[in-house]
Write the structure tokens for this entry.
Amino acid sequence: MATRHQARRAVVGLLYAYDLGNDGIEKFSEEILESDKIRNKQREFSLRLFNGTVENLEKIDEEIRKHLQSWDYEDVGKVEKAILRLGTYEIVIEGTERPIIINEAVELAKELADEKSPQFINGVLDAVGKPAKANEE
């Protein structure tokens, strides 16, 4: 049985494909999850995360942009963007505990992105969802 980590990794792949312009990826998400052996509760979990992220993309991207200090959002890599979007969705919309999501996102970045990505993702997600005042301290 797939773990939540494996389910999240599959969601990052779906979000990556979506960001590349494959808007119809939702139609194939079931097959993609099946090919990754994401089934039952983990499939429901994956689909909830993917669909929730896509449905809230504007709000999620706005939240991420607020915390990119010296970065232009358009310059963020697509894999990193997919991980940030998923993490932001889970922290801001789902209300999952920040340390759990940051740890998951950093692990995903270690597996899927370049060597500087884990630190970058950690910094951005640590600021996500916090009141503006907390970010100034």
User: Anything to note?
Assistant: Residues 4-19 form the longest helix (16 residues).
